[in-house]
Design brief:
single chain, 389 residues, 79% helix, 0% strand, mainly alpha
C-alpha cells in the first residue's frame, strides 16, 4: 500500500506541474493590457488578443479528443507543452502586433490541447469519488501561475534589475523555462492509461451535444471562462475609468482576482470532499451575482477590490464541478466529453469581443452587463446539477 501511494504521488506531482503550465494562458489578460498601452489600441482591438487565444478551443478541442484515442493522453499533453513553450518564446524576439498575434494564437492552441488531455489524464490516477476535488486542486495550482503573471509583468516593467531589454515581457521568458521543465518531468513519468474501446470521429463527438445535460454543461463552461477572461481583462480598465489610476497600479486588480480564485480553488478542494457540489456551486454563483452589482455601482478602490475578489472566489470551482459532472454522466466517452467541454472555453472568445464592443459604446459598465448574463445562466444551471449518490 505504501509503495502504491508513493508511486501515485510521484505521478501526481508532474501532472500538477502541468496544471501550473496550464495557467500560463491567463497571462493574456495582463499582456493584452500592456500591448494595448504600448501600441495605442482601442478596447475592441485589444480584446482581440484574449478572443484569439480562446478561438482555438473551438477548432482544436474535439480533434484533440480523437488524438488522445490514438496516441494516449500523456503524449498529447507533451505535445501541448511543446506548443506552449514555442508560443512563449516568440515575444522574447519582439513585441510588434503580428508577433503578439502569433504568440497568442499558439498559446491558445497549446492550451486547448492541454486542457482537453490533462483533465482526463487525472482520471488515470484518481478514483471517481475524488475527481471533482482533485480537479479543483489542479485549478488551484493553475491559479498560482495566473495570479503571478501580473506581478511578474509589473516587476519586469518597473524593476531596476537587468531584464535583457524585455521589460514586462520577462514574464514570457520565465514561463517558457517552466514549460520546458514540465516537458522533461512529465516525459520521465510512467503513467498507465486505459485504451479506448473505439476511435471516434468528429461527428460522433459533436453528437454528444444532443444530450441535454451535456449541452447544459457545455454552455456552463462557456459562461465560466467568459467571466474568468472578462474579469481578468476588464478589472484594471474599470479602475482606470473610474479612479484614473495608471495601468501599472490598476493592473494589480488582476492579481486580486487571481489571489481569491487561488484561495477558492484551495479551499474548494477540501469543501467538495464534504459538501454537495450542487450546494457549493449555488453559493459560488450567488456570490458572483452580488459581485456584479458591486462592479456596477462601486466608486472606491476598496469596494471594487471586494467585488473583484468575490468574482475570483465564486468562479474558482465552477469549471471543476461542471467538468466532473459531464465526465461522470458519460463514463464510457471521457475523451470525447473532455473535448466538448474544453471546446466550451470558446466562451473566452465570445465574451471579450462582446464586452469590448459594449465598453466602447457605453463604458466598462457595458462589459460588466455581458458578464452578468453569464452569471444568470450559471444560476439556471445550478438547478440542473445532479446530486452525488
Amino acid at each position: 500500500m505504501a509503495a502504491t501511494r508513493k508511486s501515485s504521488m510521484m505521478q501526481i506531482i508532474p501532472v500538477m506541474l502541468c496544471f501550473f503550465a496550464m495557467g500560463f494562458v491567463d497571462l493574456v489578460g495582463t499582456a493584452s493590457n500592456y500591448v494595448q498601452k504600448d501600441l495605442g489600441l482601442t478596447d475592441s482591438q485589444a480584446n482581440l488578443f484574449p478572443s484569439l487565444v480562446f478561438f482555438w478551443f473551438l477548432i482544436f478541442s474535439v480533434p484533440t479528443g480523437m488524438l488522445m484515442n490514438k496516441i494516449g493522453r500523456k503524449k498529447t499533453v507533451l505535445i501541448s507543452l511543446a506548443v506552449t513553450a514555442v508560443s512563449l518564446i516568440l515575444p522574447v524576439t519582439g513585441d510588434n502586433y503580428w508577433i503578439m498575434l502569433a504568440s497568442f494564437s499558439l498559446l491558445g492552441i497549446g492550451n486547448a490541447i492541454m486542457q482537453t488531455s490533462l483533465n482526463p489524464l487525472v482520471t488515470n490516477l484518481i478514483t471517481g469519488d475524488k475527481l471533482a476535488s482533485t480537479l479543483t486542486f489542479g485549478q488551484f495550482v493553475k491559479a498560482i501561475a495566473s495570479f503571478l503573471a501580473p506581478i511578474i509583468a509589473a516587476w519586469g516593467a518597473t524593476t531596476l534589475m537587468p531584464t535583457f531589454g524585455l521589460g514586462w515581457r520577462m514574464l514570457f521568458l520565465i514561463y517558457a523555462a517552466i514549460s520546458f521543465l514540465s516537458i522533461s518531468v512529465l516525459g520521465a513519468t510512467p503513467i498507465e492509461e486505459e485504451r479506448p474501446d473505439k476511435a471516434s470521429g468528429v461527428g460522433e463527438c459533436l453528437k454528444l451535444l444532443g444530450r441535454p445535460f451535456i449541452l447544459l454543461c457545455f454552455l456552463g463552461i462557456m459562461c465560466h471562462v467568459g467571466i474568468d477572461v472578462g474579469t481578468n481583462t476588464t478589472a484594471p480598465k474599470i479602475i482606470m475609468e473610474r479612479l484614473g489610476l495608471p495601468l501599472e497600479e490598476a493592473g494589480y486588480a488582476t492579481s486580486v482576482y487571481f489571489i481569491f480564485r487561488t484561495a477558492g480553488c484551495f479551499l474548494g478542494a477540501f469543501i467538495l470532499r464534504s459538501m454537495s457540489p450542487k450546494v457549493f456551486f449555488g453559493f459560488s454563483v450567488l456570490l458572483m451575482l452580488a459581485a456584479m452589482v458591486i462592479l456596477f455601482a462601486a466608486q472606491s478602490l476598496t469596494l471594487l477590490y471586494v467585488g473583484i475578489g468575490m468574482i475570483g472566489f465564486g468562479n474558482s470551482n465552477i469549471f471543476s464541478v461542471i467538468f466532473a459532472q459531464a465526465l461522470t454522466s458519460s463514463p464510457k466517452e471521457k475523451n470525447e466529453v473532455s473535448g466538448l467541454m474544453i471546446m466550451g472555453l470558446f466562451g473566452g472568445t465570445v465574451f471579450p469581443l462582446a464586452m469590448g464592443y459594449a465598453a466602447d459604446s457605453v463604458g466598462q459598465g457595458g462589459a460588466v452587463a455581458v458578464m452578468t448574463a453569464g452569471v444568470i445562466y450559471l444560476l439556471y444551471y445550478t438547478a440542473k446539477i445532479k446530486s452525488s449518490k
